[in-house]
Amino acid sequence: MRGALGDLVEGAHFFDVVDDATVYEVLYDFPGWPRVVRGRAALMVQFRGYAENIEIHAADHLVTHGVDDGSVVVIEYEVHGTILATGVAYDNRFCSVIRVDSGKIAHWRDYMDSLAAWNALSAGAR
Length: 126
Known about the structure:
It is globular, with a radius of gyration of 15 Å. The N and C termini lie far apart (33 Å). By secondary structure, the chain is of the alpha+beta class. It has helices at 2-5, 40-53, 114-122; strands at 18-26, 36-38, 54-67, 72-83, 89-101, 104-112. The mean pLDDT is 89.
């Protein structure tokens, strides 16, 4: 995602470009994931849990849309990986609306294919 934001943000790694007071909002209900995460530190903790459950192999099909005065970017992309507990393939599509302020991500609103995630995570339970 870092590459999609280009020169709008400063820093090399995703968490380098997130504002300390960022708001990360997901517009879907997913077990174990809050609808709103406030602050960089809390976001890092939340994604640590993500990485303990899903190994990401690739992200592709990136489409970037600049809107507003350039401080808002909409990105569409796909993520591919493996659910670690079951070995089941994880393929998901996302659309994210990102607002940048002073070179940092101030707000991230995320949409995903909830059914794809649910199918991958529940496949081992069948």
